[in-house]
Amino acid sequence: MIRLYITLGFIFLCCSLQGGLKEEILEGLNTEGITVNLRNPVYTDGVLCTEEGGVIEAPKIRIQAQRICFTQRKEEEENVLSVIAEDQIIVSFGQYIFTGDRLEYDFVSEEGVVFNGRSAIEPWYFGGEKIYLYGQDKIRIDNGYVTTSESDDPDWAIRTNTTIITCEHVMTAWGVEFHFFRWPLFWLPKFKINLDSLFDSPIRYRIRWGGKQGLRFGMIYEVFDWNSFKTFLRFDYRIQRGPGGGIETHYESPYKNHWFHTINYIANDSSIDDPSERTRYRLEGAYHNEWDCGHTGMDFSYDFLSDKEMPTDYDDNGLHIDAAQRTQLNFRRQEDQLVVANFFTRVRINEFQTIKQELPSITTIFHPLTLGCTGIISDNKFKMGYFDFKYANDEDVANFHAWRCQFFNRIYRPIQLNQITVTPQAEGIAILYGSSPQQDVKWLLLGRLGGEAKTSIYRCFKCLKHVVEPYISYNFLSDPTIDPNEHFIFDITDGWFDLNALRFGARQLVYVKPNDCYVSPYLVFDLYSYAFTNTPTIPKAIPKIYADFEWHPSYYFKHKLTTAWDNERNALNYINYRIEATLSDTIAFSCEYRQRSSYWWRKVRYDNFILDSFRTEQQLRNSLVSDQRNTVLAHLYARLEPNWATQFIIRHGWNRLNEPSYTEYECDLILFLRASWAARLSYQKREGENRFTVYFTLGGDKPRY
pLDDT under 70 in the chain at which residues? Predict the structure, then answer.
């Protein structure tokens, strides 16, 4: 009996000593910011081990596993503080969460390695044979992969020899192979990308066949992404023609005040208009920068093209038609209390373009000045430059050029008369031309008088407010000192002639207060007209009556109508009607009808009647500004399934003089596939050809905030 008591006492003493050592170890760890929570651990020579699971937490890491061996001891006068974890491990390291087969981590150096590890940065998944963990959330992967596929055997992957991923999600890889269903497609010695740029579609494919150019395969691949700077490689191959390739670069600063992009592309290709063409190219770029809190800015762009169809063919975006950019430079400086100055130059580098070159021009807009205590406000603008108007090479029209100085001065004063606001104004215009059709210097001087008067009356009902805004404005231009035929016309600011016009009308708005207390115009209706006096080219005093109508019956429907009635011919002069509707969560459409008679002129500003007062109606009717036509535009979008959608786009035109009617449409089937891949199957019926195109894109649209 005495021996039994001695044995039990010895066992109790050993357990107490071991428990005391463990408590001492744990208390020491807590002072170092490490918390060890193991289930039924066994302590041996400075090592705590368990096979029943546990958790270890430190400032930069959290470890959870089934088998854990934690070590704290001194070896050769160095502190050893490490852990080995296996079986069902989950490691939280900074912003990453890893799973794997085994973890070895040193708390002193804050470095470790996960064997056969895996992790994710939504929607990317990455892993490798060994994942090395470093401080500041930096990791290195040996024999790794990156994919968007959730499967252990991914559909596609970027496989690398060595990969480094920083805390900013910037991935740099060496020995890169792109695999698709285990098939290597291409290899790169080095690859750099920001994993957050998935929404910018780092990989895009398209296959197009049909049409006059035959089968065409294209690929755009992002090869570099660092610090908001992206580089894309583009490769195209046409079965009937040959290869094409280029480089795109994009940069945008975090504050959106500095950005640029470039395109450098060349291909063995032909356009629809010129099937014999062998080489096509595009060198395009755009640059924007602002500094000094937006007071100073610069914009620069260029677009050097082989032919005018190249912008549309380069983007190859269905029925969408793209135009060439202008080659120009604009430098702007704003002084809040003085002037806004612009230095601008524009040149023509494509012979198929008709363009007004400015070599260069300087525009100064002075800050509005109040003349003493009169309340009269004075606006002043000055522009000087050398202008060279060049027509496209296929136009049989002579070019012309001259230096020109323009000065505009406008004075006005708002006057409040009870509920009516009256604003009289006067303007002086002076333009000096260094040359003219008569090869001499010309002065153009004229005056402008006018003003406007408007008021607003309203009445409120239960949940409705009706506002009526009558207005009237008058515009008188004196005879210029020289006739428009005696000087060059570079742009609309050169087109001056006598005019006597009065606009009058009433704008009505109806506001309805919905349940969410958000007040918005339910209906907007503007009915107005112009009256002309002493204008021989416009014989009828009130030639047309105009109406602009916009109706929002609900958040899901919108109607917009603009039209004009020709009083002289008792017919519609033009009509544009558009409806936009969201029928449900899955279906939306828009439809637009446009009709233009041969007496509705194509002008930059429809409410500028100087051209009408200078040219007779018959002269305008026989010119290109008369363009009779009817057009129907429609767009339908429907989501068939959560990952399936379709859209139909059509435009149909007819009733154009000396031209046949046309119908163009596009049918798209949009599929969101697994592993973040999206596909679009598109059939395009154009005037000159039919196409069937398949687009593959990795990623989706970038979220809008």
Answer: 1-32, 136, 181, 185-186, 195-203, 210-214, 271-275, 318-319, 514-519, 674-676, 698-705
At 475 the pLDDT is 94
- Within 13 Å of residue 318, how many CA atoms lie on the same side as its CB? 18
Sequence-distant (6+) residues with CB within 8 A of 171 are 146, 163, 164, 165, 191, 192, 193, 194, 195
Half-sphere exposure of 33 (CA within 13 A, CB side): 8
Residue range(s) defining the domain that contains residue 585: 521-627
pLDDT for 15 = 42
| AA letter at 386 | Y
Selection from 319, 331, 321 nearest residue 289 by Cα? 331
Q: Which residue has the tokens 């973890």?
A: 103
Distance CA 689, CA 684 (A): 8
Question: CB of 268 within 8 A of CB of 234?
Answer: no
Q: How far apart are CA 67 and CA 75, in angstroms?
A: 24
Question: CB of 377 within 8 A of CB of 370?
Answer: yes
pLDDT digits (tens, 9 = 90+) for 360-381: 999 999 999 988 888 899 999 9
Q: Report residue 130: phi and psi, to 5°.
A: -135, 130
Count of structural domains, the chain: 1
Establish if 541 belongs to a structural domain.
yes
Q: Is residue 371 part of a domain?
A: no
* 442 in a structural domain: no
For 615-627, the three-class secondary structure string (H helix, E strand, C coil) is CCHHHHHCCCCEC
Exposure letters 667-677 (e unless 16+ CB within 10 A, then b): bbebeeeebbb
